[in-house]
Structures are given as C-alpha cells and as structure tokens.
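User: quick one
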Amino acid sequence: MFIQLVVSGLLLGCIYSLISMGLSLIWGVMGIVNFAHGAFVMLAMYAAYYGDQLLRIDPLLFTPLAIALLFLLGVIVYQMIIQYVVDGPYVSRLLATFGLGFFLINMAQFLWSPNFRTIKESMVHGVWKIGTVMIELPKLASSLGSILVAALVFLFIRKTRTGQAIQAISADKMGAALMGINLKRIAAFSFGLGIACAGAAGSLLATFYYIFPDVASLFGLIALVAVALGGFGSVEGAFLGALILGLVETLGGYYVDPNWKYALMFLIYLGIVLVRPQGLLGRGKV
Amino acid sequence: MEVDMKRVSRFFVVAILAIALIGSLYAGGGKEAAKGAPKTIKIGAIYPLTGGIAVTGADCKSGVEMAIDIINNKYDIDFPFAKTEGIPNLGGAKLEVVFADSRGDATQGMAEAERLITQDKIVAMVGGYQSAVVKTISVATERLRIPYVLSDATSPTLTERGFKYFFRVIPHDGIQAKNALDMIRDIEKKENVPLKKVALIWENTEWGSNVAVQVRKYAQEYGMTIVADIGYPNRTTDLTAEVMRIKASQPDVLIHPGYISDAILFVKTLKSMDVVPKVFVGMAAYVEPNFLQTLGNDGNYIFTRAVYGLDLAKAKPFIAKINELYKQKYGRDMSANAARSFTAPFVMADAINRAKSLDPDAIQKALMETNLPASAFISPYEGCKFDPNTHDNIYARSLYLQIQNQQYRVVWPFDLAPVPYQFPFKPWKER
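Assistant: Done. Structure below.
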C-alpha cells in the first residue's frame, strides 16, 4: 500500500511540476506571479482535445505542438499586456495576470460551453501491475513526458546563451542589463517559455483528465505553493516542491484524512518557509 | 380698478397652473392605482452559471425556463397554468425570471440575492441548487422578506432554521438517504446476498457532509456497518488516496454524494484501481447528462437518486408531453436536475395566484395554505402541502434510477419500475 501511494504521489507530483516550473521561470525573470497560469494549462487541454477530435493526433504526440502554440501565445500576451505592467507597481502586475486568467476562463466557457469533455482513449492506456502495485499507464506516460520536458528546460537554461541570460536576469536584473543583455527580448522569450511549460502540462494532462473551462484553477494554486516551497525563482526548486506536494497529497490523504489533505500541503509549506523563508532551493533574501 | 384686474388675472393664472399641477399628480396617482394588476412579475433564480459546476447550473436554468414558458404561454397539456397565459388572478400577468450567478460560492450567492432584491426588485425567489449556497441566499431573502420556494437543494439543515419565508418541495437528504438504504435492503432480500459493509465517501461542504450524517444514522438503524467513512475537499485534483482507502475496506456497498468534477474523477479512479463493489449508489452529479456523456459505459450499473425519470410518464402522461416540449427547445431529454428546478416556479405561481397580490406576507400566507395534488408534479410526490413548522413538503418522496446501457431507468420503488435492476455491479474489465 505504501509503495502504491508513493508511486501515485510521484506521478501526481510530476504533473504539478511542469506547471510550477513555468510559474517559477516567469517569476524569476520578471517578478510576476502569473495568476493566469492555470488558464493557460486549460487552453492547452482544449487545444489537445481538438487536436484529438479534428486532426486525430493523440494528446501525447500533440505535446510538441502544444508547446509551440502556447509559446507563441505567451509571446503575444507578453507583447500585448505584460510588457506594459512589468515595470509598474506590484499590484498592477498582480491584477493584470489575475484579470487575464479570469478573461480566459470565461472566454473558454463562452466558446466551448461549460460541458465536461474527455479524450476517449489515449494511445497509452490501461494499468501496469507490479505485484500489488498498480501503475496507471496514461499517468506514467504523462509523468515521463513531464520529466523529459523538465530536463530539456534545465539543459536549455544551463547550456545555451539565452538560458544563461535568463539566469543572469534572475540573479541580478540591473547587472544583466549593464552586461548588454536585452531585457525586453529575454523577458518576452521567458514568458513564452513559461507558458510553453503550461502548454506541455495541459496536453499531457488531457490524456487522462477531464476538460472544462475551470479545470486548472486548483492546479494553478497548487503550482504556486510548489514554487514558494521550492524557492521563488528556482526552477529546480519548483520541480522538487511539486513532487513533495504530490506525495503529501496521496500519503496524507491515506494516512491522515482526505479532509485535511490540502490543509496538510499548506502546513508543510508553512513549516518549511518558517525554517527557510527563501524556500528549499531559493537563493537570496526574500 | 385696472390694478385690481391685473391682480385678479395673475391670481387666476397661478390658480389654473396649480390646479393643472395637482390634477396631473392625481392622474399619476390614478395610474398607480390601476397598476394593481402588474404586467410582469419578477422572480429571482440564482445558479452556479460559471465555475466548477457551471454545466449543472445551466441544466437547472433550463428547467426553470421551461416552467416559466409553460406558465406564461398556452399549451394543451393537463398541467397547472398550461392552458392559461400568465397568472389568471392577476390579469394574466407574466412571470419574468431574473437569473444571477453564484459561481458555486456561498458568499457570492448571498450578495447576488441582495442585489436581485434591492436592485432588480424581485418579489419571489426560486432555485439555488447547492445547499451551501441556498443557506446564504435564504438568509438574505428571510431578512428582506422575500418568499423563497426551493425545489433543488436537499440538506436537512436548510429547513431546520424555522424561517418564515422559506419553503422546500423536494425530499431532504434524510428521506433520500433512508430510501437508498431501503433499496439496498430490498435488493439484499431479493438476491439473498449480504450487503452489510458500506463504504461512504462524501464531499465535505454543507450538502455532502449532511448526507453522510443521514447515511450513518440509517445504516446503524438497519444493522449495516460503515467500513470506510471518507470526507474529501470538494473539487479536488486527485482521489487516489481516497480510492485506496475504499479498496482496503472491501465494501459491499459504495455510496458517494458528490458534485460533477469529483464524480467523474472518482469513477475514473475506481476503474484504474479496479475497485468493484456489489452496489454503487451515486448522488447529485450522477444524474447529469454530461456525467454520462463523459464516462459512457463506465457509468453503467450505478444507482442514483432522483425525483424524476422519463419512465414516470407511464403513470403520469403529461410528463411525456412536457419532455417533448423540452426536447424541442433544448434538443435533449429533460434531465433529473432540470426536472427538480422545474417544480419551484409552479408552486410559487400557484401561491401568487391564490394570494392575488405581490405582497410578501400575502404570498407567504398562500404558501402556508398550499395544497397541490400529485398531478401538479412531474416528480413522484403525492402532492404538496408544507409542514407548518419546517415548511418541508410532507408528501415528498424519492426515486432510485439505475444507469442501464447508458440510460437512466427507474428501478426503485419496485412498483414504479418498468424494468428490473441489474445486479451485481459488473467488473470494469468485462464492459
């Protein structure tokens, strides 16, 4: 039973992780908490749904396309909205993304009705039994997909010039600008990249999860906690935080009481923040 | 003399103007008096039209709209208000529903109720759907003295508060929970298989937690054991831990009161963890068309409570006609949820008609005297008469449906059922 719960928790955590990584990336570069993040996940889920219905592309294979689409969307949103508030007061940054999320969710309801949809059967389906432990294959496939995308994002940030520029801005915005890094361009790029992570998560999630306009609001919230837990601005931390939350949700739900599972998640977060205010892998002061 | 004439004529001008002014005021007053029979009567209805259960809210809204259509227009159906237009005793005044969105949130529900009453000037309230939201809406209607007839939320605590303007037509969860266990006992007797171990999983807002209280109470009375008793936060992202607990308890019977997103997730998780009880009773979300569309064959064999099923048309032919009308308008059969919400406007129209007035106390008095026959309901109620203390309908009773071949069939009480129930719950792999 314990192993089963750990496996389920890790699978859940991997899904949370992609969402939280995107969130962390955006925060690191432009100091914006993207409250519309869940809404972008939802958009990607609808994209994957229509990809499956109209183009007959399995959501798993649709993922690269979702990444590209959402990256573009992210850059457009940056150009149209974010760049005007990024240097504004904190409240206006907060409200801009909050309003954007609200708009996107209501737009989805207007365009696609509040009905629930699911993809009938993804190409990977069924359950893999190892002894008494059952592993849901669609969740496993999505988790592996998440890890792959996460690894690519790590590599990108560590190894490429653009990635190093992103790191530089996260560490010291002023310094980076003085070194000749084009802040606007990098910001647009990393906003796109963050949204692309949400896109990957949405497409992978669509293989086994139901889809409706308000589906991802709670995912967005949990991802936010994962980011805070792992350390604002640290992409690795966001990944780790998400895994911890997944484990707490399943283990806590089983051994303590499902009524308290979200309370437990926030409690663990509070506990860690009390000891390490900057989060597990966060750097610098808060 | 000349000066005097000027004064006199000036006096006349002023006098005539004054008379004209007062006269016009009187004329206005006269209009007000003639307005005793209003053209339209505004009624409020608050539903979760956006957010997590927006699809349910839209379904409920369609039921209210259908009811208003039948009341306001002429139809050849043997049903109250169908053959007339509007409210006969108020000069055929039409009902107008003002819908508002609770977003499924109790705080929002109360704010919207206050807005409807103070700004839109509604004279009565219907609907609500979620017990938690109805609880706050009714606080606002009670305070602002607006009669409220509820036909779509079932928490027993709603009518335990002794409110003066609040009435409920639908059977509350106590009765519905008792009926569920009655059905299970009937099946147990007929099949001669023990159905004693009950796993109970409930969403932990107002409604779900109160259903759980009622199920526990009657299970104890009937000598059943609750082997798992699991509350979970409404609109959760994952139900793996909950389902693992159920699996470990090896229940005969599984009972789940839950709203739609959780119900879909729950059935999917049960399937992937291969949990197979003998009897599975779902409440609330399980009667929704969208639930079945989403799950397809995985929905089969589930029992669900309802106060409506198209199968009732055999006993009440007008149900087929109303369903036909509904189908023309919305392109699908009337769902159990739409049917629930359909009822309140008629009970309210009946009271307003007898009150012959829009005064809240006159309507309240008429509601207290409500005495409608079974033929005024598309539900299995034997009529409607409100208990003088709780204002619950003393003639309310519940049905149980089973999803068979992706259709909702009435299977309990046995004497109302056109088809037998299917037993036991079929393993997921064999579907």
